[in-house]
Amino acid sequence: MPSSSPPHRQPWNKGKLIGAKPPLRVSHVWSIRIKLQLEGRTRDLALFNLAIDSKLRGCDVVAVRVADVAPNGYSLDRATVRQKKTGRPVRFELTEQTRQAIDEYLRMTRRKPGEFLFAGRGTGAGLTTRQYACLVGQWIASVGLDPLKFGTHSLRRTKATLIYRRTGNLRAVQLLLGHTKIESTVRYLGIEIDDAIEIAEKIEV
After folding, report:
1. SS in 3 state form for the chain?
2. Residues in the chain with pLDDT < 50?
3. pLDDT at position 12, please?
4. 7, 49, 67, 82: which has the fewest C-beta neighbours closer than 10 Å?
5. Measured between alpha carbons, how far is 67 from 75 in angstroms, rounded to an integer?
6. How many CB atoms lie within 10 A of CB 74?
């Protein structure tokens, strides 16, 4: 008589480290940048720098179009994109090294304002989030870090965490990350309650 028990399914997270991915250190960021520069990986350098500066989720990074950051053929100092998760616009800065990397990438690829900034494999398609995650894993591993411990959210967290540590300004980080609630920013940065209270004690009303 055939068994009626359901087939065994392997857990999706078997062999994976789950939980919040830590931000990169400044030394990690520069190690990756230098490696990409030395290897002449123009697209990857532009993508990496944009991900660090923009602090966007992976799905929003791959959705960036040329017109969002370089509508006139060269990079803007600041750009605005609409987040998929919240539907809200978020504004971010583009540092000089990021602008230079994007401008060099656009010079080589001649991508047009209506196109995705970073091309995928299909005609007219942009990178997928899976392709982006694979690239991030390669970058992480190339500098001796464990790609299981770091991911796309590590890039999103990196600059936001530095800003918080240097200023203690949660509201600024909330705006930069595009969070609708300050509680989301607290959880995202892994801020302990004592840290939050210490910040509050500095504010006089």
Report:
1. CCCCCCCCCCCCCCCCCCCCCCCCCHHHHHHHHHHHHHCCCHHHHHHHHHHHHHCCCHHHHCCCEHHHHCCCCCCCCEEEEECCCCCCEEEEECCHHHHHHHHHHHHHHCCCCCCECCECCCCCCECCHHHHHHHHHHHHHHCCCCCCCCCHHHHHHHHHHHHHHHHCCHHHHHHHHCCCCHHHHHHHHCCCHHHHHHHHHCCCC
2. 12-13, 15-18
3. 37
4. 7
5. 9
6. 12
> pTM of this prediction?
0.83
> What dihedral do alpha carbons 42, 44, 49, 51 form, nearest 10°?
150
Cβ proximity of 125 and 116 under 8 Å: yes
Q: Look at residue 187 in the predicted model and tell me its pLDDT.
A: 84
Give the separation between CA 139 and CA 159, rounded to whole angstroms: 17
- What the block records as the tokens of 46 is 């532009």
Dihedral sign (CA 82, 88, 89, 91): negative
pLDDT confidence of residue 9: 62
Pairing of β 78-82 and β 89-93: antiparallel
Here the tokens at position 78 are 């600041």
Return the ∠ at Cα 104 (arms to 96 and 79), rounded to 5°: 50
